Amino acid sequence: MKHLLSALETRLASSPTPLALELPSGTRLGAAHPSVVLRFHETAGLAALAGGEVGSVGVAMVEGRVDFEGRVRDLMAAAAGLLQSDPVRGSAHWWSQAMARARSMAQHTMARDARQVQFHYDLSDDFYALWLDPRRVYSCAYYRHPGMSLTQAQDAKLDHICRKLDLRPGERFLDIGAGWGALLLHAAEHYAVEAMGITLSRNQHAHVRQLIADRGLQGRVRIELCDYRQLRNEEPFDKVASVGMFEHVGRAQMGPYFEAVRDLLRPGGLLLNHGITSAGVDNAPLGAGMGDFIEKYIFPGGELLHVSTVLHDMARAGLEMVDTENLRPHYARTLWAWSDALEARLPEAERILTAQTDAVQGARALRAYRLYLAGSAMGFERGWMALHQMLAVRPDGDLSSGSMRGAQSGYPFIRDYMYR
């Protein structure tokens, strides 16, 4: 124990954020005037802290074995300072990659994917409404101008996607993983497309159906409760968007996923795939226990791939990438906006979550989300994760189609159209 306390004092002295620890005995270590205080109710988590396993400390916090005082932003700065290695640079041997692929195949059956999606997205609509924008856009915003609010940046993101897809009146548009319907309705109301969305979340499905009815869009917009692997459409879609969904697909299913999307898309049509990617090229889970934390409390079954791996699988499926954009800092700002909104309404959030379950489970879920939102913001800031929008076409083989010879699609092969 003496050696452990000495190691902790050394770590605390080098912390970029004034940090103090309170041990179960009441003894205090660290800064005299701390920005953050960690109170340990048992000694088990001290070794994890000394070893830089911040994800394991996060688990202890969610389970109520460690409490903290201070701003969650300061807590994240302290956590980053405690890391002993780069969490995205771990080595990955061929056998560990093979084992990960086997686990991925087992994890991503249709039944299991549905349960895993519902675990996260069906937590509580009222809870999400506390900290998301009014349309409940639960994906990276697009801060076209620095002074934008979250709501303005989410509106800009919806339009950015529609412009990249060059949506035209009367086109058939599919939104895979439609969330609470913001993109689906924006595309229908502003671009006059015939829009269809799919989701595995029962709550989101019910919410979007009500929005469609309220806005009188039943003839042009519909939402289905189904897996992308179940979707059978006699007439292909002109344009397809997948926003914040392919993180749930799994590395073992990524090839079949893009093949399924290709089959849903008409020759010459466009796909916009928007999602979180890993900074580590070996695609191992985020280190220091952080990946395990996300798997346990937030996104069971979620898997992040490096953008190069995604583009490889996309190409093998017969889709040609025509434009890729990294919005990583935009997601950091989005997540901090969500985190700040949740931090401002903690008592209300706990009441909502407690009503959904019980006092113990509600408090646990709230602690998990506080750490998840702020921790993810930190991860995007520090480059541990990225957010890529990948625009691809299904070539039609016609060298004379499109506005430029050899385009083999409607894509103009210039970016000007996106910003007019």
In N-to-C order, the SSE pattern is HEEEHHEHHHHHEHEHEEHEHHEHHHEH
CATH fold-type name of the largest domain:
Rossmann fold
Share of β-strand residues = 15-25%
What is the name of the CATH architecture of the largest domain? Answer: 3-Layer(aba) Sandwich
Describe the sheet with the most strands: 7 strands, mixed
Question: Reading side by side through the largest sheet, how are the strands ordered?
Answer: 7-6-5-8-9-11-10
What is the secondary structure topology, with strand pairs?
Layout: H1 2-13, E1 19-22, E2 28-30, E3 36-40, H2 44-50, H3 54-62, E4 66-69, H4 72-82, H5 94-107, H6 110-121, H7 125-131, H8 150-164, E5 172-176, H9 182-191, E6 194-199, H10 202-214, E7 221-225, E8 237-243, H11 254-264, E9 265-278, H12 290-297, H13 307-316, E10 320-326, H14 328-343, H15 346-356, H16 359-381, E11 385-393, H17 416-419
Parallel strand pairs: 1-3, 5-6, 5-8, 6-7, 8-9
Antiparallel strand pairs: 1-2, 3-4, 9-11, 10-11
Helix pairs in contact: 1-2, 2-3, 3-12, 3-16, 4-16, 11-13, 14-16, 15-16
Question: Explain this structure to me?
Answer:
GO terms for molecular function: methyltransferase activity. Belongs to the CFA/CMAS family. Pfam families: CMAS. The protein has 420 residues and is of the alpha/beta class. It folds into 2 domains: 2-82, Nonspecific Lipid-transfer Protein, Chain A (2-Layer Sandwich); 100-419, Vaccinia Virus protein VP39 (Rossmann fold), CATH 3.40.50. Helices cover 46% and strands 16% of the residues. The protein has helices at residues 2-13, 44-50, 54-62, 72-82, 94-107, 110-121, 125-131, 150-164, 182-191, 202-214, 254-264, 290-297, 307-316, 328-343, 346-356, 359-381, 416-419, and strands at residues 19-22, 28-30, 36-40, 66-69, 172-176, 194-199, 221-225, 237-243, 265-278, 320-326, 385-393. The strands form 2 sheets. Strands 7-6-5-8-9-11-10 form a 7-stranded mixed β-sheet, sandwiched between helices. A 4-stranded mixed β-sheet has the order 2-1-3-4, with helices on one face. Helix 3 (54-62) packs antiparallel against helix 16 (359-381), helix 11 (254-264) packs across helix 13 and helix 14 (328-343) runs antiparallel to helix 16 (359-381). The relative contact order is 0.13. The model is unreliable at 91-100 (pLDDT under 50).
